[in-house]
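Continuing the batch. This is chain 6 of the set; chains 1 through 5 are on the previous pages. Same settings as before, nothing changed between runs. Recording input and output for traceability.
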Amino acid sequence: MKYYLDEDLSPKIAEILRKHGMDAVSAHEIGMVQAEDKEHLKLAASEKRCLVTRNRNDFIRLTVQFFHEHRSHCGILIIPHTLPGDNFSLIARAIMKYDSKHPHEVPSYGIDFLKS
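Output for chain 6:
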């Protein structure tokens, strides 16, 4: 699975994931900081990437909006606030664990929650 990390996650997480052979890119690395959430989701969808974020409410709302507009996306993975945002290796390990248990893409409009 390919991942797009929202700007609310450190680009260091994407770096750690890539060091472990995963396909991950950060909004910070591609100049998408301060873009609207809808733009993040559109970009992730266009690159067939699962969007990873801590911003649960906005992306759940956007998923419903995309569904009504018949605009698919490649799923959303929510990082819970029980995982400290400054513990990059812990978040990266949790994403790697998720990836190993879910080798296929998250279904279009799918939302999943990372376990801590």
